[in-house]
Specification:
- It contains 1 helix and 11 strands.
- By secondary structure, it is mainly beta.
- It is globular and about 40 Å long.
């Protein structure tokens, strides 16, 4: 059983940065693609970024490309999302998403491609 656990959320000013972490408390992450989605108040959950099993392939939503960076450390069973130049509209609950399929499925198919979800961590960007 895969049980992702997010951490690192909090309050940050516009233009600031945060790093989210997703760790695995059950099975190992090593055989899975791991990504991040976010859900803002009143909006649907949307894809943010995903990293392949090896860590060599990454995909980003257009809205975060160039500002966010996803990476993984399989030895530590942890995936990171470095978020820079945050804007208030990115206030949301950020969820770690684990998939048994290839990383591009999270980008292409969204939530339908996700097999396991974390409980989320709140990111608040103040103006």
């Amino acid at each position: 059983q895969v049980r992702p656990v997010e951490s690192g959320g909090g309050l940050v000013q516009a233009g600031g940065a945060l790093r989210l972490s997703c760790s695995e408390s059950g099975d190992t992450f090593a055989g899975y693609s791991v990504g991040w989605f976010r859900e803002a108040p009143g909006k649907e959950r949307e894809f943010v970024a995903v990293v392949s099993r090896s860590g060599l392939i990454t995909y980003y939503a257009d809205s975060v490309s160039g500002r966010f960076n996803i990476s993984r450390d399989n030895a530590k069973n942890t995936v990171y999302l470095q978020m820079n130049s945050l804007i208030p509209e990115e206030t949301a609950v950020y969820y770690c998403a684990v998939s048994g399929g290839p990383a591009r499925r999270q980008r292409d198919d969204g939530t339908r491609a996700v097999d396991y979800w974390g409980k989320g961590t709140l990111v608040t960007v103040s103006s």
